[in-house]
Amino acid sequence: MAHPAVTAFVRALDQFDRSKTRTEIFRLFCEMAYCALAKRASPFADQQDRLEAEYMACVGRFPNKDDVRRMPEMMATAIKAIAGGGIDFIGQVAAEIGALDAGLGQFFTPYEVSRLMAEMSLGDAAAQIEAQGFITVSEPAAGAGGMVLALADALEAQGFEPARHIWVEAVELSRSTFHMAYIQISTRGIAGRVINGNSLSLETYDRAFTAAAPVFYGLHGDPFAKQKDAARRAAQAEEEARARTRELLRSAAPVQARAVWQYD
Q1: Cα separation of 73 and 91, whole Å?
Q2: Where's the DNA methylase adenine-specific domain (predicted)?
């Protein structure tokens, strides 16, 4: 049975000009909501300008401006449902209206299943949070963000705030589904970054910080500072080893030793 907020949202979609399908209207709504939310969260002026232009391009696709005026009310419905937790709101709406593409492997996972999986995968998260103040989560196929929402809910149930104790890097290939994931992850108050890209090829097409990202950075700084420092130290050590090898090859060391080093 659909959540009451989902039912209300779907009913609102039916009030739009019938020149567009519910799926088209829904995807435009998600793009507009993404642009509005990501613009406010972005620390980059050029990204803010681009998001504003994309938002206005979406507005231009509605000849009847009464349709545009319906968007804030729908946005309020979505935000209230998502922020309260316990629901994959956008994913449920998408499933309800048939906006998911099975050909791309898009299927709606019931929230209860995601929540169970989240609780099973947390492991010693509490101990890690107590030790370093937060955990990091990588979601390489985020979909509409349902699994990330369930993880945040599970952590919150243990007494940890998503904005303070978790950093999420969520990647989604589909552009329209990327919009959905950003809306939900950001609105739920989860710190992190949502990326439109390919986890296999490591290509990135777009990215946006969530609204809670500054809160996290203010408390902990860069969540990957230790990993970056370790990578810098490893690169430095490798360069020093190469320099020693080059020096040896230029020295008067025995020919056999030089041959071994050059082979390595």
Answers
A1: 19
A2: 104-203
